[in-house]
Amino acid sequence: MEPGRRVLAVLFADVSGSTALYETLGDRAALAAVESVLGLLKRAVTVQQGRVVKTIGDEVMAVFESADAALQAAVDMQHQMAHRAAESELRLGIRIGFHAGPVLEEQGDVFGDAVNTAARLAALANAGQIITSGATVLALSPLLRESTRDLDALPLRGKHEAIRVHEVLWQESGETTMMAPKGVAAAASPVLRVEHGARVIRLAPGVDRIMFGRDQSNDVVIADRMASRVHGRIERRGDRFYYVDMSSNGTYVTNEGDVELLIRRDQLMLRGRGRIGFGHSTGDADAEVVTFRFE
Q: Domain tally for the chain?
């Protein structure tokens, strides 16, 4: 690799629907709404220890040290936008594309083919979609690689050959939902019961995630000094639940019958019942522990 170059994951997130918003709300209110979304995107970058390179109108460009971090930031952005849409009448979405490859850094900006590829992948995405390249999928950890699907080999402007394009499956897809045969009752969706002290939260159908961390904006606030501001989340994917770590010190997770596992910037499927510790073992005397079990 030539001097001045390094491998980074480059991500573009573009606010979709902003043009119509300006026509509906007027310039001042629409600008405030778009800037609020851009702030949300920037926070998701920071949580994954990425760097916002620049904003271009209603688009954010960011870089990450790994493809895993870029994917997790992209998923967090889409989850945040979905949550926002459920609480607001504003019809805004985001399109995301990311690609890992060699870039040239100069005076805080980044250049190169990887940047161009990421931008063109973002342009392929629909609102609510995350698109990446086949080469980037190969750079993901095995667990995260399972959350992608190969779409097709597509031509990109400036590329001599078509590249494999993959979608990140950040939510249950209607295309993969199977209908029960007539006369057969559908199995009830599982419910995960999460307990923190005297508080109980149930992830029933319609409740898709719980956020944990020191920041008061989290669903469950963890006072433990070892916990990060935004430490991690439990999320529903179809009929399964996963714990996703987003922290500096990692999360200790025990599924009943298994040894305790430390996960850092990774995820783990939850089974049966178990315990979660934030930054240190659930067995430590001063650990702040969350328990979970399926109902």
A: 2
Burial class of residue 106 in the structure, from the number of CB atoms within 10 Å of its CB (0-12 exposed, 13-18 middle, 19+ buried): exposed
Q: Are residues 20 and 157 in the same domain?
A: yes
User: Which H helix or E strand runs over 33?
Assistant: helix 27-47
125-169 pLDDT tens trace: 888 889 999 999 999 998 899 889 888 777 666 666 778 889 998
Structural domain contains residue 201: yes
Query: Which pLDDT band holds residue 21 (cuts at 50, 70, 90)?
Result: low
Q: How far apart are CA 64 and CA 210, in angstroms?
A: 25
Which of the 8 DSSP states describes residue 187?
P
Examine residue 86 and state whether it is found in any structural domain, yes or no: yes
- Residue 256 burial (CB < 10 Å; 0-12/13-18/19+)? exposed
In which domain, by residue range, is 232 found? 192-294
Residue 233 is assigned to a structural domain of this protein: yes
Tokens of 258: 């298994």
Last residue of a domain, one of 141, 171, 201: 171
The per-residue pLDDT for 187 is 47
Tally the C-alpha atoms within 13 A of residue 90's C-alpha that lie toward its C-beta.
Answer: 27
pTM confidence score: 0.57
Residue 270 has phi, psi (to 5 degrees) of -90, 140
Contact 228, 248 (CB under 8 A): yes
pLDDT tens readout for residues 190-205: 899 999 999 999 998 8
Count CB-CB contacts under 10 A for residue 278.
Answer: 28
